[in-house]
Amino acid sequence: MTISKLLSPLALGVVLGLVAFIVFGPLLNLAMWTFAEQWFYPNRLPTGWGFSFWERVFRPRAGAWTSLFNTVLVACAAVLLSMALAIPAGYALARQALPARSVIMLLFLLPQAFPNLPIFVNIAAIFYQWGLNGTLVGVVLVHSLPGLVYAVWIATAAFSAVDRSLEEAARNLGASPLRSFTDITLPQALPGLLAASIFVFLDSIDEFTGTFFVGAPEITTLPLLMFNASMGGNYQVAAITALILLIPSVGFMLVIERFLKADVLARVGR
Predict the structure, then answer these.
(1) What are the tens digits of pLDDT across the range 195-211?
(2) C or N: which end of the chain has fewer Cβ atoms within 10 Å?
(3) How far apart are CA 251 and CA 246, in angstroms?
(4) How confident is the model at residue 138 (pLDDT cuts 50, 70, 90)?
(5) Cα-Cα-Cα-Cα dihedral of 205, 209, 210, 214, to 10°?
(6) Residue 149, CB half-sphere, CA atoms under 13 Å: how many?
(7) How far apart are CA 241 and CA 244, in angstroms?
(8) Phi and psi for 269 in degrees, rounded to 5?
């Protein structure tokens, strides 16, 4: 066996090892902080391990349970609001010959085209005049704004991927437009719509800037709790909160990979 043949697997192993370190290194460090009782410089590893900080995080007065409840409640409400707007909008964009369709699709991308900070600062000023600052309604509206990007674009792709001939066959058999939509179109588009809902949910549970300017201090979510802990030097509490946020993100991404098929992805943006 020549040296070149030996170096190829070795180089591949080095590259894969480097990629694994870049991806999993921060996660390993995060996991270590969640169980570190004592970890001071210059020690490379914690000098004490335990679960005392887990107990602190979930004390009734610590606010973690309230923050977790608010996070899930706001995320679910944002999903309902975003999908209630995205389903009719996505169907119309996919099936109707709308004038300036490309411009309409582009408008839904505008919230992601600008930095979040100035957008949410101006929204907070408007919501203050309307009495929505510090309310769940205001936070849900803020979380739904970026969620509409995923919801509308993926819903449009999901409806575009549905075979129109099946709808036409149902109409020829006497089904009404509503019956054809509920029995034929919606079930076929459902996997893509579920994927869109998951994207909105994951975006909402990780949203910090909008919640900070519109909801704080009355409405506290897990990202706000993690920020306050990290700014106060409570790295164990921040790591535990980050781990709680990481679990649904990883789980739901596996679900998205299952539901979001290639034919739907191929039509995103069309």
Answers:
(1) 888 889 988 998 988 89
(2) N
(3) 9
(4) very high
(5) 120
(6) 13
(7) 5
(8) 90, -5
How high is the mean pLDDT of the chain?
81
Give residue 266's pLDDT. 45
Which residue has tokens 């509308």? Answer: 152
Distance CA 270, CA 268 (A): 6
Peptide bond into 217 cis (omega under 30): yes
Token couple for 250 = 């990883």
Strand locations in the chain, DSSP E? 36-38, 48-49
Decide if 83 contacts 151 (C-beta within 8 A). yes
3-state secondary structure of 52: helix
Q: What is the pLDDT of residue 5?
A: 57
pTM score, whole prediction? 0.81
The number of C-alpha atoms within 13 Å of 57 and in the hemisphere containing its C-beta is 24
Residue 113 corresponds to which tokens in the numbers above? 């085209």
Six token digits for residue 98 = 């709308």
Confirm if 210 and 119 have CB atoms less than 8 A apart: no
Tell me the three state secondary structure of residue 9: helix
Top-confidence residue, 266 or 65 = 65
Mean pLDDT for 75-104 is 84
pLDDT, tens only, 46-87: 888 888 888 888 887 777 888 889 999 999 999 999 999 999
**233 DSSP 8-state letter:** T
Domains and CATH numbers, the chain: 3-50 (no CATH), 64-265 (1.10.3720.10)
